[in-house]
């Protein structure tokens, strides 16, 4: 039971932390691209502004990579954005593998507890015989509790793993759209409203 309890604590911590960190308002702030466009139009983009944009959000880090290379070609800007984007995506996916692992091993830990409990039941049968049903019932009950505990940790962990993975995919698509918009606006291929 202790490994299952430890898994449940770690899973809960990961779920709460990821739900907090993967909020849309934190990852893809509204109007960040339009703010960058206003700064670009007023020619107020400098290294301190770029640093401030990068520190504001994951999308800001991606846009800052493009802004740093704004005097280069569109391809160079996109390459810089893609490079930083890969790092940002890696950070957004942080701990999701651990959560997936917990979802996978929790039922196995429960099954292991069940097997160990059944071994104890059969050991009790060999020493005390089948005459005392209370000993058998207690051992079987103990064995099945570990399976139930493992499943009760695994099911929510798996659900949140799937949800959070989908959330990361959604945020990545939003960041790609915003970064592409900024590149096209700054390269003069799109109007600010488009």
UniProtKB/TrEMBL annotation:
GO CC terms: plasma membrane
Annotated membrane topology: Multi-pass membrane protein
Primary residence: membrane
MotA/TolQ/ExbB proton channel domain location: 57-176
Transmembrane segments: 108-131, 143-164
Location(s), subcellular: Cell membrane; Membrane
Source organism superkingdom: Bacteria
GO biological process annotation, one example: protein import
Keyword terms of this UniProt record: Cell membrane, Membrane, Protein transport, Transmembrane, Transmembrane helix, Transport
Family per similarity comment: Belongs to the exbB/tolQ family.
Name this protein carries in UniProt: MotA/TolQ/ExbB proton channel family protein
Originating species: Sedimenticola thiotaurini
